[in-house]
Design brief:
heterodimer, A: 506 residues, alpha+beta, five-stranded mixed sheet, B: 194 residues, mainly alpha, 8 helices
């Protein structure tokens, strides 16, 4: 028997060669996001098996949206390559959209960008990519809620509940945090695929076989998606082991992983991709989000987990959470004010810009939540210390539910806010005043890309604004290069209000 | 730097082969003898849970298409869930024997995901043949862990389950390219790559 097994294993080991299904792209010329100094003579797509060029198989567009004529064909002498000769390209960024027929009958599609003596924008800002949809807002909100359940539940157990907790509390806490981490992984995948769908802009049937590699490897969206998914899978593993082995200490790595990988939003959001991005702005973004998740998630866990399962711990837990919430709110406000000043240097941006208007709604909800929290901290907590009856505790539960509902609403507005573009930086001080208003800017910062924007609007799609998992877009640098520093920008805005109003927004 | 896909498949195939051999040993000597060492009870559930965790980087690297990502992501998740429930049963955290139904469910749905992840007729090319074989082997093989739920000491069900895992390992080792299988059956399948 042993000999037979050994022979079977060896026979299996000598068989392997190449693992394939339908055609996969192996490489392109120019490469993904490659900056070339000399204009390429042709676009070449190399596949791992035979691919047939369909009509219009390769479509190249300049940043203005102008179509570059590219008659595509299967490369003579190499059935695995499709090429499209190019006319001489001028300086700028270009988007390549391609589709070929794989031998198994599936149409494979893809999109990538390159630049001729110009940086190539990420594929999330390719010409024709659409912006975040309502479905993406909702998915992102669900993502925030899942993270809040995970982070808040673990935070409650580790920071608020004493070391020995009732079994019923433990069971429900593991259930809630387990749901949170599983949902975070699933919704994260859904969010990535929805964004990829907007970038690829192909029908669903073709999207299933579309190439995701440029989006995953060439954008902040992809980096954040990979990091967060792996982080939450590890957090799920630690959570499971903590439950299996009854080791609360294993919740710490799960908690730290969940908190740490929430920074995926920060490395892919406004603060990371904007021209003023710095480690401080990304840190502020992460602190802001982490504090919000811990606060709202902790509140939800307090009401949904601790209140029904551990009546004896209610007073103590409420008191401890109240103290924790005070610190979290302080962090939340400090980071939030810093980021607001960074993104909206002018007060009137709050009502004149769509970003400011959404922020205003969020600030209103935060004010309500803060007032509610202050009521709990300054009135309810001392009253609970004084009074022994259960009646107040029942009313406190309802009140906490109300505060938690406001917290959820804040997360919804936050999900919309990260999709909304902050006002662009004013242009650099021009040599001649008349040129300030003239040059339009476009996603990715390609000069003259307003045409691309127009073409997308004509096609009935929202222009792309997403540069990250948060769906946020980097603020494009000005046509003259990178945006000026904040101080000079303010000075310019003050000195040239009519020109600023006249300038089209990307 | 992404390793070649075939190397990753071989790695998982080796894991499955070892797992299958352990299950086969358990089926041959019986559960009582196998579990004389307590840690052996945790061996296959722990291994399958670990396979699920390790499958996640593969899922994220499978960005050739969403359908690849769906397939690999599904296998990662069901492996983790099946392993986790078995570990919990061994540990006593779960007590109902019906939790063992997670294993046949995992096998069945993994087979379905395999078929969806690379559709095509059986004899179109070797890749399609192997995917169809793997998919239907997993779907059909789900009968063995299903039987284990109700007859946990049955040699047939235990041995059959081990055979399914070994078969999955062998399938993972085999060619999955466009070469024709059993002769040149489709002109579209192209020429062999070797």
């Amino acid at each position: 028997m042993r000999r037979l097994l050994l022979v079977a294993a060896l026979a299996a080991l000598v068989l392997p060669s190449v693992a394939l299904a339908h055609a996969n792209i192996q490489g392109t010329t120019p490469g993904y996001r490659e900056r070339v100094e000399a204009p390429p003579r042709a676009i070449v797509l190399k596949f791992d098996q035979r691919a047939t060029a369909l009509p219009g198989a390769i479509e190249v567009r300049a940043a203005s949206g102008k179509l570059v004529p590219t008659p595509a064909r299967t490369r003579p002498g190499d059935a695995r390559a499709v090429e499209a000769p190019l006319p001489r390209l001028s300086k700028g960024a270009y988007t390549v959209r391609w589709r070929v027929l794989s031998v198994d009958g599936h149409v494979i599609s893809g999109v990538y960008t390159f630049g001729v003596r110009h940086p190539a924008p990420p594929p999330t800002e390719a010409v024709g990519a659409s912006g975040p949809t309502t479905a993406e807002h909702i998915v992102r909100w669900a993502y925030f809620l899942a993270l809040a359940l995970l982070v808040g539940g673990l935070g409650l157990r580790l920071l608020v509940v004493p070391r020995a907790a009732p079994a019923a509390l433990e069971r429900r806490l593991y259930a809630v945090t387990g749901i949170g981490v599983a949902a975070a992984v699933q919704i994260g995948i859904a969010a990535f695929l929805l964004r990829a769908d907007g970038v690829l802009d192909v029908p669903f049937g073709r999207f299933l076989y579309a190439d995701l590699q440029p989006i995953e490897t060439g954008s902040r969206l992809g980096a954040a998606f990979i990091a967060m998914t792996l982080g939450y899978v590890l957090a799920a593993s630690f959570l499971f082991l903590a439950w299996l082995l009854d080791r609360t200490v294993l919740l710490w790595p799960a908690f730290l992983l969940a908190l740490g990988f929430a920074s995926g939003f920060s490395i892919s959001g406004h603060q990371a991709s904007g021209p003023d991005s710095s480690w401080l702005s990304q840190l502020a973004d992460w602190v802001h989000l982490s504090a919000a998740l811990l606060w709202t998630g902790g509140l939800a866990s307090l009401v949904l987990v601790l209140w029904p399962t551990a009546p004896g711990l209610r007073r103590e837990a409420f008191s401890r959470f109240s103290r924790l919430a005070t610190a979290l709110v302080a962090l939340l406000l400090a980071a939030g004010i810093y980021m607001s000043v960074l993104r909206l240097p002018q007060l009137d941006d709050l009502w004149s810009e769509s970003y400011g208007q959404v922020l205003l709604v969020k600030l209103g909800l935060v004010a309500v939540a803060l007032a509610w929290g202050a009521l709990h901290h300054f009135l309810v907590r001392p009253a609970l210390d004084r009074l022994a009856g259960e009646g107040l505790l029942v009313r406190v539960q309802r009140s906490l539910l109300g505060e938690g509902a406001v917290g959820m609403a804040i997360l919804l507005v936050a999900a919309i806010l990260v999709d909304t573009k902050p006002p662009p930086e004013p242009a650099a001080p021009p040599a001649q005043a008349s040129t300030v208003a003239a040059p339009p800017r476009a996603p990715g910062g390609q000069p003259g890309a307003a045409g691309a924007r127009r073409s997308r609007v004509l096609a009935g799609r929202k222009p792309a604004t997403a540069g990250g998992l948060s769906g946020s877009a980097p603020r494009p640098p000005s046509a003259a290069g990178r945006a000026p520093r904040r101080a000079s920008a303010r000075a310019l805005r003050r000195s040239t209000p009519p020109l600023r109003r006249a300038a089209p927004r990307p | 730097m992404r390793p070649p896909a075939e190397h990753v498949h071989w790695l998982f195939a080796t894991g499955f082969l070892l797992l299958g051999l352990c299950l086969l040993a358990e089926a041959i000597v019986g559960v009582d003898v196998w579990r004389r060492r307590a840690w052996r009870a945790y061996l296959w559930p722990g291994a399958i849970f670990l396979v699920g965790v390790v499958m996640w980087p593969v899922t994220l690297a499978s960005a050739w298409s969403p359908v690849h990502m769906f397939g690999h992501g599904w296998w990662a998740q069901v492996a983790m869930v099946a392993g986790a429930t078995q570990l919990a049963l061994v540990r006593g955290k779960l007590t109902s024997r019906y939790w063992t139904l997670m294993v046949p469910l995992a096998l069945f749905s993994s087979g379905a995901a395999t078929l969806l992840h690379d559709q095509g007729s059986w004899l179109f090319a070797r890749s399609q043949f192997v995917h169809n074989l793997a998919g239907w082997a997993l779907i059909g093989g789900a009968i063995f862990p299903l039987g284990q739920t109700f007859r946990p000491r049955s040699w047939v069900f235990n041995g059959g389950f081990a055979a399914v895992i070994i078969a999955a390992a062998v399938i993972l080792y085999t060619d999955r390219d466009l070469a024709p299988i059993f002769g040149h059956l489709s002109p579209d399948a192209g020429v062999p790559r070797r």
